[in-house]
Amino acid sequence: MKIAIIGGGISGLTLAWYLQKAGVPYELFEADARPGGNLHTWATPEGYLLETGPNSLQLSTELEELLADLGLTDQIQESAAVSQHRYVLRGGRYRQLPGSPPALLTNSFFSLKAKWQLLKEFRQPAAPIDVHETVAQFFRRRFGSEIVDYAVNPFMAGIYAGDPEQLLLHKTFPQLAALEQQYGSVLRGLAKTGKAAPRRRIITLKGGVQTITDTLAARLTSYQPGTAVTAISRATDGTYQLELRGPQGLAAAPGYSHLALALPAYAAAPLLQPLFAEAAAALAAVHYPPMSVVFSAYDQAAVAHPLNGFGALHPKVEGTYAAGSIWTSSIYPQRVPAGQVLFTTFVGGTQYEAAALQPEDVQKAAVHAELSTFYGITGAPRWQGRYLWPRSIPQYDARIMAAHATTDALAREHVVAVANWRAGVSVPDCIRHARRTAEALAAQ
């Protein structure tokens, strides 16, 4: 057995790490000189430590074990205590979102009608399983439209860059579908199962989340950065051959029993086209909306809002320019110069695609104007920066079903997928899936 891993993001690097630990031969090819893919930490000359991708990580068991394996446990940085507070824009001002189902009933965020709908959910029977049901349809059916508009919608836009009217429940939140089927009521199921599951710690690394992928890449014995896979073919004995373009020009790499796709669906599609046309078409259809990340720093004295939380999200019904902002300086004060506050604002995603691709100066000005309105900011920003993802987070909408089905079929051809379009979009999801894939391959 010899495995070719294509793509050096968190999924490909993790897969390689666990194959290496198991003694399974592999070679990992990454087209970029920098490892990490979407995990990218940006240290600016002005003294800001920024994340252009995931800003924080939920400390899952698999992530914690990986960090210990890499000797990075002492680099874990906890988020500030205020990060448990989340805000949502409602009626033109930020209001704290209740943090638990009981708090939903006692907090004034939702109307009496919405609270009554929550109470009725306990007595509402389970509906037949529908794999095509969207997140919005599920929550509207069980909890009502107000919950969808002011809780589900901003959460899906801010975390998944998605639209709950399009994202599939069984692909995005399969655990909620399972609770409905098992307990009849989702809230009853959460009450019975939630007590045994403690809240996961929200962390980063002292040098940024890219520390994880940098360390993984440095520990791998068969990692080839700056080497793009340009074509895949198959020999008469069934093994795979790769055409490579690297620092030394074109080269061929034959004799791989397995291929591991650890790159975006749109990048995997043309490689698969000559051998697996149906799979290539399914992967090419996966939607990646554009997303701009705009960073804005201000003198603390110029900002009226106390910024006592993780950040604030914007429901689509509020008609805002951006999907919301993370209050980076509140979560990790060490990441900005003293006396300043920093907003990480997200422009784009499925619900805001037109704004995502506007010129940088237009985006910066629009974000500053919106921040000034909602946070009571006086004066110009101390500093602004922008990072553009032309294709950001894969959407688990109706198009993902064919991609998942066809890659399940590809496993019979010794082709496995470990990227976030298959594993789940969070970093812990990717680590978990890559580790399990490595264990399954090693068992062969």
Automatic annotation (TrEMBL):
Pathway: Porphyrin-containing compound metabolism; protoheme biosynthesis. It catalyses: coproporphyrinogen III + 3 O2 = coproporphyrin III + 3 H2O2. Gene3D superfamilies: FAD/NAD(P)-binding domain (3.50.50.60), protoporphyrinogen ix oxidase, domain 3 (1.10.3110.10), Protoporphyrinogen oxidase, mitochondrial, domain 2 (3.90.660.20). Residues 10-441 form the Amine oxidase domain. The keyword Transmembrane does not apply. Its EC number is 1.3.3.15. It is an enzyme of class 1 (oxidoreductase). Keywords: Cytoplasm, FAD, Flavoprotein, Heme biosynthesis, Oxidoreductase. It is found in: Cytoplasm. InterPro entries: Amino_oxidase, FAD/NAD-bd_sf, Protoporphyrinogen_oxidase, Zeta_carotene_desat/Oxidored. It comes from the Bacteria. Signal peptide: none annotated. Its main location: cytoplasm. Its cofactor is FAD. Belongs to the protoporphyrinogen/coproporphyrinogen oxidase family. Coproporphyrinogen III oxidase subfamily. NCBIfam families: proto_IX_ox. Involved in coproporphyrin-dependent heme b biosynthesis. Catalyzes the oxidation of coproporphyrinogen III to coproporphyrin III. This is Coproporphyrinogen III oxidase. The lineage of its organism: Bacteria, Pseudomonadati, Bacteroidota, Cytophagia, Cytophagales. The gene is hemG.
